[in-house]
Amino acid sequence: MGSIKKLVFLILIAGSLSFCASKQTCQMDFPQEIAAVYFQKVNSGEGQVAPRTDFYIEFEKPLAKEIVLDKVYFQDMVGVVEIESDTTFVAHFYQDSTDHDLVLHSDPTKEYGNKAPIITEPKFDLQRTEAVLEYRKREKTFFYKILAIKERPMILNPSGIKPKK
Fold first, then answer.
1. Contact 52, 82 (CB under 8 A)
2. β-pairing, 150-156 with 34-43?
């Protein structure tokens, strides 16, 4: 009877410890005042440049020196945050162009050259108007969930040059 109790106790401890590192916790407050968060789709018009979505984060004041913005998780995509100005940061999300042909044939040996699609599980379960901002503060990584993100009208950009505000 004593060995069964020890076994159950060990299983409970092992199960509770295995879930500690797998969950990402999001901060409720960002350490600095955010003025606006929005995204905007950009289409080259000529098909030379892949369509993309630009995700903007604007702050009231310049970002504190101890805070570094790393990534944005938005609509099952991940984008690296870039500095546009001292108060504005942007992440670019490029849509995958699937211009490769698949060979479909009744004889499976004729389909040999087809590539299998790469399916990745998103890191966060988000709605369409939600995003998670990954940032570092004093070398510790934090996650901040952004809600109710607004969409601005699409930019038609025939030259393929990055749009200015």
1. no
2. parallel
- Inter-residue contact 116 to 102 (CB < 8 Å): no
Q: Between the CA atoms of 140, 35, 80 and 38, what dihedral angle is there, to the nearest 10 degrees?
A: 140
Q: Which residues of 63-88 are buried (b: 16+ CB within 10 A; e: fewer)?
A: beeeeebebbbbbebbbebeebeeeb
Kindly list the averaged pLDDT for each block of 10 residues, start to end, along the chain of length 165. Answer: 72 62 64 91 69 91 92 91 94 74 79 77 85 91 92 70 52
The rounded distance, in Å, linking the Cα atoms of 96 and 162 is 18
For the chain, what is the HEC assignment?
CHHHHHHHHHHHHHHHHHCCCCCCCCECCCCCCEEEEEEEEEECCCCCCCCEEEEEEEECCCCCCCEEEEEEEECCEEEEEEECCCCEEEEEEECCCCCCCCCCCCCHHHHCCCCCCCCCCCCCCCCCCCEEEEEEECCEEEEEEECCCEEEEEEECCCCCCCCC
Using CA atoms, how far apart are residues 75 and 94, in angstroms rounded to an integer? 12
Determine the Cα–Cα distance for residues 40 and 92; give it in Å rounded to an integer.
10
Residues 6+ apart with CB under 8 A from 156: 43, 45
